[in-house]
Amino acid sequence: MTATYITLDYLDLGLAALLLVLNGALSIWLRLGLERQLLIAALRMCVQLGLMGLVLKTLFAVVSPWLTGLAVVVMVAFAGREVMARQETRFRGFWAYGLGTTSVLFAGTLVTVFALATQIQADPWYHPRYAIPLLGMILGNTMTGIAIGLNTLTGRVKRERAAIETMLALGETRAAAFRPFVRSAVRNGLIPIVNAMSAAGVVSLPGMMTGQILSGVEPMEAIKYQILIMFLIAGGTALGVVTAVHAGALRLSDARHRLRLDRLAGN
Amino acid sequence: MLEVRALSRPGLAPVDLDLAAGEALALLGPSGSGKTLLLRAIADLDPNQGRVGLDGEDREDVPAPTWRRRVTYLSTEPGWWAERAGEHFPDAAGAKALLPPLGLPEDMMARPIAELSTGERHRLALARVLVQAPRVLLLDEPTSGLDQETTRMVEAVLRARLADGAAILFSTHDEALAARLGDRCVRVRDGRVETETP
């Protein structure tokens, strides 16, 4: 392996930032009104990534299971918030946040720990240099899948209320009455990862693989890693979406097999 | 046969009702008075309090789907979950015989729901309920949107069920229908079941 890693200095970043200035100039010229948002988004990115760099530097220096665990909790909490923010119709009360977050936590950590314990075999297994990036990639995709899945479920159930209630009134169980909608919600939640796998290597070069190649890793090695990550992401997303959608369907009904749209906000 | 004791839910004051086998009870009252709430509560489709029993058996002792097969609610706006009429029936071929007495052609089972008129859908939904031969029918405005002739046909089908020992609780705005089909009438106003007229 030839380590031909090229470090960047701040001048390089400054030069790249000129492109952003060009963006801003275009926005003013075409009156897009985006220059302020562009500036804020760019500043946010720099600050957030800068902070992340400091956090990772510290985490890697101490290799503490507690600090790594804390980082995991914060990441999951943000992922859960993001799931909630992407819902057109939210559940009432705790469930608005709790349903997505619990599913993200369950699927994301399970798959990450599985990978760390069996395929990566870092020493110690919770080493943040492996745990945090892995979890980050798995969480990001799981979160998207869950957000789409839950959004599809609540939207379809609201729209198909009459059909569900008619089935229930005829003596169907809630599982039978919800089945078509649970199915389409799970399917929608899984489409992005299926598409990502189909397009990988042809249309898109996945970021992690490109990153490894840029840092001097042999392409075949980088690709093996990427394939592993894709499998982990697919597994995590499926697990998360299935959990979240089924929990959502249970929450939208009760033990007496009633449709409970009153548990959605604004109903 | 059907015993309702202190049944209540938000928007409905406690109700007591008794319905004997072969008996039809009409619920009369303006829109929004609580007729639908009462029918849905008996079918246990919304959270509610109180006791409801069928033939001496408590509703809470029976799984909800079983209860609803015996005590079936038919909405004014029934929903559909498949493309064609026949796909909504567990056994479309076996259910065909129910259609002509309701003024529906037998080949309706092959037609898409989207092509049916409101009145046809309404009667098809009734056929879907009758297929399961429930002990108690909870019908929300069973003849709304039907012309005189089809109203008479639906009434005749319901009378035949009464003769077979089913009980019917139905809501209506139509005093004449209440008098024709109902053995008794109760009025519902502001979520209260008021007078009972023999």
Could you describe the 3D structure shown?
The complex is a heterodimer of chains A (267) and B (198). Chain A has two domains: 1-62, no CATH class; 64-263, no CATH class. In chain A, 76% of the residues lie in helices and 0% in strands. Chain A has helices spanning 10-29, 35-62, 65-85, 94-120, 128-159, 161-169, 174-199, 207-214, 219-251. Chain A is globular and about 70 Å long. The mean pLDDT of chain A is 92. Chain B has six helices and ten strands. In chain B, helix 5 (148-163) links the parallel strand 7 and strand 8. Chain B has a single domain (2-79, 134-197), classed as Rossmann fold. With 198 residues, chain B is α/β, with parallel strands linked by helices. A six-stranded mixed sheet of chain B has the order 6-7-8-3-9-10, with helices on both faces. Chain B has a four-stranded antiparallel sheet with strand order 2-1-4-5. Chain A binds chain B through residues 160-173, 180, 254, 256-259, and chain B through 43-47, 63-69, 72-75, 77-81, 125, 128-129, 132.
Mean pLDDT of chain A: 92
Largest sheet of chain B: 6 strands, mixed
Oligomer: heterodimer
How many strands in all of chain B? 10
Overall mean pLDDT of chain B stands at 91
Low-pLDDT regions of chain B: none
State the share of residues found in helices of chain A, binned by percent: over 70%
Entry summary:
Chain A has 267 residues and is mostly helical. Helix content of chain A is 76%, strand content 0%. Chain A has helices at 10-29, 35-62, 65-85, 94-120, 128-159, 161-169, 174-199, 207-214, 219-251.
Keywords:
heterodimer, A: 267 residues, mainly alpha, 9 helices, 0% strand, B: 198 residues, alpha/beta, Rossmann fold, 6 helices, globular
Topology:
The complex is a heterodimer of chains A (267) and B (198).
Chain A lengths: L9 H20 L5 H28 L2 H21 L8 H27 L7 H32 L1 H9 L4 H26 L7 H8 L4 H33 L16
Helix pairs in contact in A: 1-2, 3-4, 3-5, 4-5, 4-9, 5-7, 5-9, 6-7, 7-9, 8-9
Chain B lengths: L1 E8 L2 E8 L4 E5 L6 H8 L6 E6 L2 E2 L5 H7 E4 L17 H4 L22 H13 L5 E5 L7 H16 L3 E6 L2 H7 L2 E6 L2 E6 L1
Parallel strand pairs in B: 3-8, 3-9, 6-7, 7-8
Antiparallel strand pairs in B: 1-2, 1-4, 4-5, 9-10
